Every structure is written in C-alpha cells, then in structure tokens.
Amino acid sequence: MNQPARILVVEDESIVAFNLQQRLSMLGYDVPAIAVSGQESIDLVSQMRPDLVLMDIHIQGDMDGIEVAAKLRETHAVPVIYLTAYSEDSTLERARRTRPYGYLLKPFSERELHATIQMAFERQRLENELNDSRRLLQQALDAASLGVMELDKTTTTITPSPRTADLIGWPHDQPLTLPDLLARVDATERDAIAAKLHHCLKDLRHFSEEFRVLAEGSTPRWIKIDAGHVSDQRVTGVVQDVSERKQSELRLKTLNESLEHLVTARTDQLHQSLKELEAFSYSVAHDLRAPVRAIIGLSEMLLQTQPTRFDQDGIDLVQRIAATGQRMRALIDALLHMARLNQVPMQLRLVDISGIAGEIASQLMESEPQRVAEIRISPKLEAMADPTLVRALLDNLMRNAWKFSAHSKITRIDVGAKTLGGETVFFVRDNGCGFDMASADRLFGPFQRLHREDEYTGTGIGLTIVQRIVMRHGGRVWAFSEPGLGAAFHFTLSA
Ligand SMILES: Nc1ncnc2c1ncn2[C@@H]1O[C@H](COP(=O)(O)OP(=O)(O)O)[C@@H](O)[C@H]1O
Ligand SMILES: [Mg+2]
Known about the structure:
It is a multi-pass membrane protein. Keywords: Kinase, Phosphoprotein, Transferase. The protein is of the alpha/beta class. The chain has 4 domains: 135 residues, Response regulator (Rossmann fold), CATH 3.40.50.2300; 98 residues, PAS domain (Beta-Lactamase), CATH 3.30.450; 84 residues, Helix Hairpins (Orthogonal Bundle), CATH 1.10.287; 147 residues, Histidine kinase-like ATPase, C-terminal domain (Heat Shock Protein 90), CATH 3.30.565.10. Strands 8-7-6-11-10-9 form a 6-stranded antiparallel sheet, sandwiched between helices. Helix 1 links the parallel strand 1 and strand 2. The protein is rod-shaped and about 160 Å long. Bound molecules: adenosine-5'-diphosphate and magnesium ion (MG). The site of magnesium ion has 5 residues, from helix 12.
C-alpha cells in the first residue's frame, strides 16, 4: 500500500480514542478524524470516505454503533470492524446481521488489531473481485437475453432469474417448482421432456433440450434449457428463447415441402407434355412416310416407264428427287426408331455386353468382308440394364466407329471398360477420322452431324438415341477425339 490506509475511529471515550489513534499511527495507519456519535460518524464517512471504520458499540447520540453500521452498509461500501466490551450473544447476533469485517473484544493487543485490520482489507479486496465478476456475468447474460435458474433436487424448488420467469411466463413473486415448469411444457412434448429430465437428474447428467412452453395470455415460445449438476443436490441452468430460430426452421420446412410438391407437380406436367409431344411427332413421322414413299416410287416409275421423255439433265434431276426422297425416308425411319425405343418399358437384368458387342462386330465384318479390320472386345463386360436398349446403344456406337474409320488402312475398334472412382465406365474406341473437340457439345443433338453427307452418310440421330438410352439408365455419356486420330465414346449405365 503506497498511501497509508485511512481509518475512521468511532469512540465516545476521548482517552480511549486518543490512545487508539496513537496505536494505529504506530502501526502505519492514518486516522484523520474521530467521531463520538452516530450522526457524526455518518457525516464523516460521507466527507472523508475512509478505507475502514473502527466502530465502538456504545456511543453518544440516539443510535448505537450497530445501528450506525447498518445504515452505513446501505449507503457506503465501507468495511466496519467493531471494537467493544460487549460479548453477550444478543449483541453478537445483532452485530452479525450487519456483516462486519471483524469483531474485537476490548482489551485487545496491537497485534490482534493489526491482524484484524489486514484481514478486513483482504476480505474487501476479494469481495470487490467477486462483485466485478458477478457484474460481468450479469452483463453477459443480459446481452444474450439469457435467464438462469437453480433447482434444489430434494424440494424440487426452482429459483428462476427474472428473465427466466418471463420466458416461462411465471410471476416473479411466486415460488416455482419442477412440476410447475413441466406443466408449462407443450402437452405433446411434456412426457418426453419429463423422461429426459428424470434421466439427467438420476444419472447426474447434463440436460440440454428445446421445447415449447405455453403460458396463459402470452404467445407460445420455444425455449432451450442447458443445465448441469453443481452438486448431488443442486442443478443450475441457462434458459434462452429460441423461438425465432425455431420459427424460421419451421418456415423453411414448410417452404421446402411446398417446393417439393410444386416440383413433383411440374415434373408430372412436363412428363405428360413430353409424352404428348412424342406421340405427336411419332404420328407426324408416321404419316409422312406414305407421301415420301410415293415421291420415291413415282420418280422411279417416271424413269422406268418414260425414259425417252427426258434428256440427260432431266434424268439427273429425277434421280436427285428419288435420292432426296430416300434420304428423307431414312430420317423418318430413324425418328420412328427413336420414338419406339423411348416407348420400350425398361426391363433391368444382367446384360452380357461382350456378347452383344461380339454379335454386332460379326455383322459389321460380314457387311464389308474386303475391309481389313481388327475389333477387340474385352471379355465379361456386364451391366444391370435393359438388353434391347443396350443393344441399340452399342449398335449405334460401334456402327459409328466402323463408319468413321472406313478410310483407315486397318480399322481398329476396341470395346472395353475401366473403373473410375468406383464406377464402371464402358468405352467404344476407334482409329478413324475423329472430330474437332470444339464441336463436342453438338454431337448428341438430334440431326447434328460433324461430317459431310457425301463423305459419310447418316441421319444424325444415332448419338441422340445413345444419350437417351444412357439417361434412362441413370448414366452419362461423353466423347474424346482428335481429328485424324480416332474417337472414343465413354458411357456409364447407372449413377
Ligand atoms: N466414331 C466417330 N468418329 C468421328 N465422328 C463421330 C463418331 N461418332 C459420331 N461422330 C460424329 O457425330 C455425328 C453424329 O453421330 P450420329 O448421331 O451417330 O449420326 P450419324 O452417324 O447418323 O452421322 C456424326 O455425324 C459424326 O460427325
Ligand atoms: Mg450414327
């Protein structure tokens, strides 16, 4: 202590007071004043703000020392030590209620006086610290709008903070018990919460639950209680209002549900229109067949039955009409083929992909026996899939590989599979003319062709069919290529 501690002495016997002042000075304390009556001491405390009061009980005036100390306790946080000759129980009991920092019986030694004063200062320091941390805690609780509560397990009495009482809609002045609290819990949750609470109390476990409380006259609220044991008998907890979060969770949930409904309804509508559209294009394609057949037939008839009516230019024109008609028929047939494949109901079974690929390979080789070709098919390629659709898929990919490698010296086609990230990826690879990757995203669109019709014939429907089939199986299809170095088509059959 840099400054000597300042002590107010309250003592009506001037000799005793003087003597005490001397002894205190020798001990290193400062005694700036001496009071003889209650009122005088209260005034002096207000003016001087001493660090400590040494209080005689029998003093002048209409208050005794104990009454003065009680008054000082209400207005000033100054520690008081009684110095008195009274030692009977009734006085001690009255003095005790004023929470003195010490009680010294006259006569006392210097050492006793010094020790008592030192202990009083130490206790005051601790109390100040305690008050500071209490204030800090309260600030934190207020800022977070948290309530606190304490439960006595034997009596089931709950002591709620005002905020806790407000949260559960309980009057501040009425005693609260555990059954009272449970009675406020929403009836649908009450039993479950009571059971959990019971377990926590029995096994001295932590309790952390959210539930709805219903109090008369106030809107229902969601609260959360986090509680733990501080001893076998006492449980303390923190209470918070989680209504806002709960409500947004609920709103989000209903929103999600209605969105899901909407999506399902829209998807159904979309499926329906898709079906109608498919049926429509099917019937259009189907009805176009007859006139196209007539155009082809008539132009051929014209050439056969009236060959003398045309010169060479006329014959060329009629032949081009017939050829265009045939091309149109091929397109229509491809469309019809695709529409039919779309309508096939899926029947999943274990499909022997190697076997099907082998059959297609034989057909290709037989179609052009003079062509030098090597088609390698990995053994035991299998998948859970629809056999008819998988055959159409392989047919399109392998026919493309065959077609676009027609100009290679030796045609090489590989059909195989690899595992990528736990997924089986099938591939059909060739050493043909390939294509420019810049156009890769067009490949699978209907009627899209990256090569000229006079170089490689086709309708541009094949890869569209491939993509539909793969998608119906929940898989993906993609391609790699470099012009002149061949192409590789990859696909999976289930996601
Ligand atoms: N193996 C391949 N090599 C090079 N280009 C290919 C290959 N497969 C497909 N393509 C390109 O993709 C286009 C679309 O293929 P596809 O839909 O099967 O139509 P089509 O075979 O009737 O031309 C082809 O016209 C071609 O340009
Ligand atoms: Mg094709």
